[in-house]
Amino acid sequence: MKKQIQIKYTNGQMTINLDKFFPSTQKDCKKVLAVITLDWQHQDELIQSILDWMKEEQKECDDLSREYANKYVDIKPKIREAEAKVNVLKKIILRMKADKLKDPLKAAREDLKKANSEFRQLKNKESYYNTSFNNYHSRKEKLQKNMQILEERR
User: Fold this and answer.
1) What element of type H or E holds 21?
2) Which CATH architecture has domain 4-153?
């Protein structure tokens, strides 16, 4: 898919990198439309190129947001298991402290350290998946608004 459009008009020309410019604000989208109308011979082609690119981009955003939503849902049980493991190890360590068991206490503390590390890694992944989902979903919605503006002007 073409990621650039070239707009030529009497006073010059403009190249727009679609993946850098869109999604844009409504104001910026309307400004680009005004420049596109200066290239009246290719106006319909340019708008159609942008719309085609946006449809592809929307589909990609939809696929990626769905993928990250699934990963987010899949990691939830792993987080609960890791959290339960950490809590059990904390209780074991408290019992060992009360019973004054020094040798097994060191091993239990190492296990707790590993379990805490695994739990934090899972929580970080969960946060990443959630943020990625929100970013792609938001991008898709913004592209939809830009598409509406372009279609109105066609």
Assistant:
1) helix 18-21
2) Orthogonal Bundle (1.10)
Place of tokens 């402290």: 97
What are the angstrom distances between the C-alpha of 43 and each of 18, 121, 136, 147, 150? 16, 50, 29, 15, 11
57 CB neighbour count, 10 Å cutoff: 21
Rounded distance between C-alpha atoms, residue 24 and residue 48, angstroms: 17
Return d(Cα 116, Cα 121) in angstroms, integer: 9
pLDDT in tens, 86-126: 999 999 999 988 888 777 888 999 999 999 999 999 999 99
Task: Give me Rg for the CA atoms of the chain.
Answer: 27
**Residue 56's pLDDT is what?**
96
What pTM, to 2 d.p., does this model score?
A: 0.83
CA distance 146 to 45: 17
